[in-house]
Amino acid sequence: MSDFSEELIRPTTEDEQEEPRVPSGTGMCLPWLQKHIETIATGGKQEKDFAQTTSACLNLIQEALLKHQWQRAAEYMHSYFQILEDSDSNKRQIAPEIIWRLGSEILYYHPKSNVETFNTFADRMKNIGVMNYLKISLQHALYLLHNGMLEDANRNLSQAETWRYGEKSSSQEVLINLIQAYKGLLQYYIWSKKKMELSQLDEDDYAYNTASQNMLNHSWKTSINLCALIQIPGVWDPFVKSYVEMLEFYGDQDGAREVLTNYAYDEKFPSNPNAHIYLYNFLKREKAPREKLISVLKILYQIVPSHKLMLEFHRLLRKSENEEHHKLGLEVLFGVLDFAGCTRNITAWKYLAKYLRQTLMGSHLAWVQEEWNSRKNWWPSFHFSYFRAKNDWKEDKALACEKALVAGLLLGKDCRYFRNISKQDHQVLKKKIKQMKKSVKKYSIVNPGL
């Protein structure tokens, strides 16, 4: 056992017993903690109230954690264990979870801690307050997974899976399902490895049949563990993805579609952009009709208008024969470029420059004005300042040209961004700049001739 774990269980020395100290329910003490506790006093007299002592200790632990003083926090934890003897039953009930959260955080980062120390602490805490058994078991398993100890994690989850404590087990049904689902993810990982091995074998080889059967056994176990969880309203992205991948591998397209559709559209589930992304990618693999793909991305657009799939959404809308879709295609491009993270997305600017010109050529000035009216007070400084023009030309001349065309179409030839780029003398882009000037002169929405 490490020096740190020995420190956790070290006995009190005779010298320490002679000094004033804070008692601990675990038989440990910290003589030097007394000077901190002395701050809890009234009229110079030390306050011995149990609740205030533990409260002060908790504050000191939290302060040490915030400052990443792991050793100091660990030392304070010795005294905080006395909370388990609090006369207040409510405090005693929540104490094990607080101790677990603080202790596991300390052990995770403490330089002298190791897996053995963490395991010892976790096993002890599981048996203090039965209602925390499942939570601690799950977090313990995740810690083991983080350290690459898959077999230990699986064994830990298997033990937790069978946990029962009278009638209280029903109130923790979701946690049990979650533990089973994480066990399913471990089985999925094994299944994925076997799938990789299978792809390297000849189908006529005897080993292929054996590997295929092993895969089937693992997929069956995984399906059982994952299926129960994804029926419960929640965000279960990794579990859904794993389950759908196996369903698709075995040709159950209908089952996969049903799972993804329920995950995306069931009103009992929280709004989740990933659910619509998974459904869209599945339908795309199935070569679903364009209208179906548009309907899925339309919901994603309402949730995350800056998502990278919005450019793909624009292309689908542009190809549609529905004029409302063409109008929405313009709205989508403006929506993407509203976000700071997309200001240098050259594809988005290229699409907007081209589509703006096409829209104005098609006599849909009203569409453009509708989008521009809500942006004309902030887009010029956000996208089309003189500083932006100089910086864009320096860093990405192709981007600057696309933005300049958009700026000219929306703000006219007197726009600072357009003026700055249009006067640049660049041999390669000379023809492009000339065409840009022509388009702005003919189609700008501030041109009285329109």
Overview in brief:
The protein is mainly alpha-helical. The protein has 24 helices and 2 strands.
Give a verbal description of the structure:
Mean pLDDT is 85; it is low at 1-47. The protein has a two-stranded antiparallel ribbon. Strand 1 (41-42) and strand 2 (45-46) form a beta hairpin. By secondary structure, it is mostly helical. The protein is 68% helix and 1% strand. The protein has 24 helices and two strands. It is extended, with a radius of gyration of 32 Å.
Percentage of residues in strands: under 5%
Spatial gap, N to C terminus: 82 Å
Choose one word for the global shape.
extended
Spatial order of the strands in the main sheet? Answer: 1-2
What is the helix content? 55-70%
**Beta strands, count:** 2
Q: What is the typical, i.e. mean, pLDDT?
A: 85
The secondary-structure class comes to mainly alpha
Main beta-sheet strand count, sense and barrel state: 2 strands, antiparallel
> What's the helix-strand series?
HHHEEHHHHHHHHHHHHHHHHHHHHH
